[in-house]
Design goal:
The chain is built from 15 helices and no strands. By secondary structure, it is mainly alpha-helical.
Length: 365
């Protein structure tokens, strides 16, 4: 329990870069360094959390905690991963309200980004050795990559890649209309009452955490519809600042909810919004963790999960490409990325590399 708490608190403190980077960091610590899971078991968990709504990296931390120490481990890993980011975003929200601007954390993020790109690339290479072992898996991966690049919804990408492998292996016939019917078509504008006290705020973020698939940009769409357009509780600028703080601080991007809650109702609002958006992750990941080993014993479910795993790698690859385009824009950035790849190959802990990159970015800023 102590080891879980220390590990996920540290990952919450240095976890720049969003879910893809968090997954790569967790793999480095849990698979390479501690041997708690094999690469195959870890990839199964990645595929499982990609099928769930909510913050994927937090759900992965919850899964790992449950595997390591049961329900107490589930709670410890999840809470310790969330807490550092929540406190940091809360401090940023306080400074924003008091001084009208966000503290300068962008410099640290600029230095950490090239290192994050290197870490995610390293993890992708390791995952591909496990997941892409046949022409069928490679074909499903190429299809998922094309669908993701074309802007198809993440859940549809995962379902298509999973069903492709399932259909070929098991000979099942599944119509495309059935896949489309499983995509999430919720109306985010209907999630928030016209006036939101603490109870309404908690309920709004509880619903968002229960239905949201995708990145921080998808979260931005939900919050804009509910908080800016429908209720007018926030201005467009305040909302963009909230999402920006969630992205440039370490830990889950979903802590943007903490910032929004503080703007609306101070510390109680921050706590209500944070609890609401993360609570579904604990419930969904806890329940799916019980079912996953049983699913793996079914040939049909195993085929579907293998396809989902390849689809998850395609999603991760596109995020890495997008992150790389924004991060590798100067000679120092390229040097940081290439040097980080070399040090990862030499066995250097990825957490130290991110800390060093963030410090370098802060100094350069």
């Amino acid at each position: 329990m102590r080891e879980l708490a220390l590990l996920f608190t540290r990952l919450g403190l240095i976890g720049f870069g969003g879910p893809a980077a968090h997954i790569a960091l967790m793999r480095d610590e849990v698979v390479r360094r501690r041997g708690w899971l094999s690469d195959g078991e870890f990839l199964d968990l990645v595929g499982a959390v990609n099928l769930l709504p909510g913050p994927n990296s937090t759900e992965l931390a919850i899964h790992i905690g449950r595997r390591r120490a049961g329900v107490p481990g589930l709670l410890v890993a999840g809470l310790c991963f969330i807490l550092p980011a929540t406190l940091l975003v809360l401090a940023c929200a306080w400074a924003y309200v008091r001084y009208g601007r966000v503290p300068a954390v962008a410099g640290a993020w600029q230095g950490a980004k090239p290192v994050v790109v290197a870490i995610v690339l390293w993890a992708l290479a390791g995952f591909m050795k496990i997941a892409v072992r046949s022409r069928l898996a490679a074909g499903a991966g190429v299809l998922a990559l094309g669908l993701t690049a074309a802007g198809v919804h993440e859940l549809v990408v995962l379902l298509v890649s999973g069903l492709m492998v399932l259909t070929v292996r098991q000979g099942f016939r599944v119509g495309g209309a059935g896949v489309a019917a499983l995509a999430p078509w919720w109306a985010p504008g209907a999630l928030l009452p016209a006036t939101a006290g603490l109870g309404g705020l908690f309920l709004f973020f509880l619903k968002v955490g229960s239905v949201l698939y995708g990145s921080g940009y998808v979260l931005l769409a939900f919050l804009r519809s509910g908080l800016v357009e429908r209720s007018g509780l926030l201005t467009e600028a305040q909302l963009l600042d909230a999402v920006a703080v969630g992205q440039v601080t370490p830990g889950p991007v979903f802590t943007a909810a903490t910032f929004v809650g503080y703007l609306l109702h101070g510390v109680p609002g921050a706590l209500a919004a944070t609890a609401g958006i993360f609570l579904p992750a604990f419930l969904l990941a806890g329940l799916s963790g019980v079912l996953l080993p049983r699913l793996r014993r079914s040939p049909a479910a195993r085929a579907f999960l293998d396809g989902v795993n390849v689809g998850s790698l395609a999603l991760m690859a596109v995020v890495t490409w997008q992150l790389g385009r924004g991060a590798l824009t100067s000679v120092p950035a390229w040097l940081l990325a290439v040097g980080s790849l070399a040090l990862l190959g030499a066995g250097v802990n990825s957490a130290w590399l991110i800390a060093a990159g963030a410090f370098a970015g802060f100094l350069l800023r």
